[in-house]
Structures are given as structure tokens and as C-alpha cells.
Write a structure and sequence with these properties.
alpha+beta, Mannose-Binding Protein A, Chain A, eight-stranded mixed beta sheet
């Protein structure tokens, strides 16, 4: 019995530590992806590198529902007085041909009027340029927050009941 309690405490501690590992804001899950707003500010390229380190990419957007989740989530949680945030749409490889950092299909866009205009050489994309959350291509060096996504998987909280069941099963067999 003591051993089971100890194991449970270890699992709970592990869950708590992985949840506290970063201060990014969870914006919601949709279409198998979990969207986060970074707590840190940075260029498009540094934010993409950070997202890769988190196991994802700057967010790709494929529907009005995803666009709304991202746009509204940034507006509600941005901390720097601006609601601009990087998403993962870039034409850094071929000027004028935008692709998603995560390699997903380009099947939806939400450009602001007159964008993308590559003004002075702009190859990265922000949301919330327009009043309805429309996109603009900007130079990478704008120091702003970013939205990234990772594949949505059952988290530690979801795994906990299964861990409890496993402990109960072991006790029955003993
Ligand atoms: Ca460009
Ligand atoms: Ca632009």
C-alpha cells in the first residue's frame, strides 16, 4: 500500500513539473492540435526555433475556426500592448509562395487587404493586423509573441486515472 501511494505521488509530481515547465498560454485544442501563445517575445525565426524545441512549429491555420481561436486567443492573452503575433506562414524559400513551417497544406488564407506586399522584403506572417484578425507579411525582426501548435496528446492529467487503474490491478494480483 505504501509503495502504491509513493508511486502515485511520483506520478503527480511528474505531471505538475511538466505542466510548470513553461509559461506559455494554452489557447485551446482544435483539429488534433494544441495552440499556445509564447510568453517570450522574439523574431519570427527565433520563435519558430523555440516552437521546434517544444515539439511543434509556429501555428498553421486551415479554417475560420482555427483563425478565430488563434486571433481571439492572442487578443485575450497578449502582454506587450500589441496583439500582433507570429504564425508559421513564410515565403522565405520562394518569394511570393507562402508555405507553412509545419509542412501542412496551404488551404486557407486570411490576408489583410493589400497583403502580402513584401514591403522592403517581408517573408513572415502575423495575425491581428486587421480589425478582424487579418494577416500581414512582416520582416522577421519584429520582436513580438507567437502562436505555435503541437500535436494534441492526452496530457498527464488524462493519464492519471489509467495509472491508478494499473496500481489497483497490481494490488489485486498480489
Ligand atoms: Ca516575401
Ligand atoms: Ca506586409
Amino acid at each position: 500500500m505504501r509503495k502504491s501511494v509513493f508511486r502515485l505521488a511520483s506520478i503527480a509530481a511528474l505531471a505538475a513539473s511538466s505542466l510548470a515547465a513553461h509559461a506559455d498560454v494554452f489557447l485551446g485544442a482544435l483539429d488534433g492540435k494544441s495552440f499556445y501563445l509564447t510568453s517570450a517575445f522574439g523574431s519570427a525565426l527565433s520563435q519558430e526555433a523555440y516552437a521546434v524545441g517544444r515539439g511543434g512549429h509556429l501555428a498553421s491555420i486551415h479554417s475560420l475556426a482555427e483563425q478565430t481561436l488563434v486571433s481571439a486567443g492572442v487578443r485575450a492573452n497578449a502582454t506587450g500592448g500589441s496583439s500582433l503575433a507570429w504564425i508559421g506562414f513564410t515565403d522565405q524559400a520562394v518569394e511570393g509562395t507562402f508555405q507553412w513551417f509545419d509542412g501542412s497544406a496551404v488551404d486557407y488564407t486570411f490576408w489583410s487587404g493589400g497583403e502580402p506586399n513584401d514591403l522592403g522584403g517581408e517573408d513572415y506572417t502575423v495575425v491581428n493586423w486587421g480589425s478582424n484578425g487579418e494577416w500581414n507579411d512582416l520582416d522577421s525582426n519584429y520582436d513580438i509573441q507567437a502562436v505555435y501548435s503541437v500535436d494534441a496528446v492526452p496530457g498527464p492529467a488524462a493519464a492519471l486515472p489509467f495509472a491508478l487503474m494499473a496500481i489497483k490491478r497490481r494490488r489485486k494480483r498480489a
